[in-house]
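Feature request, filed as a ticket because there's no other form

It would be nice if the structure record came with a short human-readable summary line next to the tokens. Right now we just get the raw output. Example of a typical job, pasted below so the devs can see what we mean:
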Amino acid sequence: MWKEIIICVVILLMIFMGNYITQKYTTESVTNLNTQLKELEEKVKTGENNSIINQMNELKSNWNERYKNLSYFIEHDELEKVETKLTAINGYIEADNLEEVRSNIQETEFILKHIEKKYAVIIENVF
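Raw output as currently delivered:
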């Protein structure tokens, strides 16, 4: 009987540790990406075209690295929404449509915050 209890406790500890690690990585990723999006938005406001393109390239590079890890434990539909918005932002930057860039940046920030909240262990998500 003690053997089964110990096995159950170890399994529960592994589940909680895994959840803690994935939640921490998700929060870190969302914070990092939102910071880069805010920096991009500031550069869009000032209209520095070269720095906008450079910031977007950094953002895409960061997203591609994080996407690989996030895709292990987050629904692909959620990640594809962010990917779609980032592609739209890049297209609007190339078309020099800065109003749409700002709009899509705000939508992307919202989607990222939604992902963070959706996968957090809170009472809302448990029930």
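Something like this underneath would help us a lot:
The chain has one domain: 25-120.
Helices lie at 2-46, 49-70, 76-94, 98-118, 123-126.
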